[in-house]
Amino acid sequence: MFDYTIETSNTMEETIEKLKATLMEEKFGVLWEFDIQAKLQEKGLEFNEPYKVLEVCNPHEAKRVLDKNKMVGYFLPCKIVVYTDQGKTKIGMPKPSALIQNVNDEELNEIALDIEKRLMSAIDKSI
Question: How many Cα atoms occupy the beta-carbon half-sphere of 86 within 13 Å?
Fold first, then answer.
């Protein structure tokens, strides 16, 4: 599977606040929080489910992978999505290991797996 997605009984707001704190424990910061629902509604489009994309980054890890292969920047920053689906709050992300496979570099695969493990840990701790 290309993604890691889990469900929580917390509200979106609670989930995002907890997620920000657990990401910090793993040395990741939230660069940007994109509210897709608000943006679509601003453009006159009906979209009634809350849906937020958090772009997260660990600068040291970003530099490490970019030093190895500049094309990895196509996958940066990492994205974590928090949304509601049928009344349930979900948290998900594309797995870095699935994305990085496209550059065919074993060392980068190992780095991606480590980053993935840390992001999944932060997500798990936020539920």
Answer: 1
Instruction: Tell me the three state secondary structure of residue 50.
Output: coil
pLDDT tens column, 31-56: 999 999 999 999 999 999 999 999 99
**Are residues 116 and 26 in contact, defined by beta-carbon separation less than 8 angstroms?**
no
Euclidean distance between CA atoms 13 and 45, whole angstroms: 23
Q: Domain of 48: which CATH number?
A: 3.30.310.70
Can you tell me the distance from the alpha carbon of 100 to that of 78, in angstroms, rounded to the nearest whole number? 12
Quote the pTM value.
Answer: 0.93
Q: Please count the structural domains in the chain.
A: 1
| Residue 118: both structure tokens together | 């840390």
